Amino acid sequence: MASQRDVRNRIDAVKNIQKITRAMEMVAAARLRRAEQRIEALRPYADAIRRMTREAANAAGDVPQLPILEEHEQTNKVGLLLVAGDRGLAGAFNSQIVRAGVRAGREHSADSREALFFASGRRVASSLTFRGLEPAASFTGFSDRPAYADARGIAEKLMAAYVDGDVDQVEIFYNGYISPIQQVVRRETLLPLQRATILDDGEDSDEDSSEDEHQHHALVEYEPDPEVILGRLVPDYVEISVYRALLESTASEHGARMTAMRNASDNAGTLIEDLTLEMNRARQAEITQEIMEVVAGAEAL
After folding, report:
1. 63-98 burial, b if ≥16 CB within 10 A, otherwise e?
2. Weakly modelled stretches of the chain, pLDDT under 50
3. Quick check: pTM over 0.85?
4. CATH code that applies to domain 25-199+220-258
């Protein structure tokens, strides 16, 4: 059995760790609220951009022959953008994105397609490098509070890779935020537009949509032509899709870290109770030993 001093030192160490985890939980909770507000403000705009892109594509008919809108004849290379965080201590937040991306890469390889990885977040970049999957480009340093300029930089890199023929399709993986204790890995296709995931998970082409709504969409007139508008919308669509993924990932990271730190604090409390009980037993054992030594000495006299 460990001595009282050893157990007391362990209790002090666990208490210090508990203070750190509680502080990290409080910081994550404060940042989570701000991230939720940014998502709530962005979602209507992102939905509108996607809806406008879909309607312009329908009105244009055949997609205009622009490099960013042209579908490649064959899909030999697929670009996979994995969005996660720069830091750890967030449970499975980072690892589940890496696993999903690596799994998708294996699926493409099984279909004779080459997977080209792009990493947003230091944890993703280091994990891919550790697995021998060196990312073609890494974007780090902004996972706590991404700006639209960060999304534009990533989108420009992806669009350039598509236009230059380095990739024939672009997919994005990120943690979709549902609640502080629930994040869902989402996989979306950004390019080409013909295969893009333009609608949100929550959006549907419901059959019970009124005929008036269909007529309203049918009566939309475009000035200039839908082809020109579509050519301008697609870059914005890619940028806003990447930006939304960054914000969703940020909120998911803060939620996952808050939950992980809360669980760590609770586990530390349980461990402190167990160690305190062990220390009391050690103290009782020492007292019993001293009493036995006194009694043995008295009997010897």
Report:
1. bbeeebbeeeeebebbbbbbbbbbeebbbebbebbb
2. 199-217
3. no
4. 3.40.1380.10
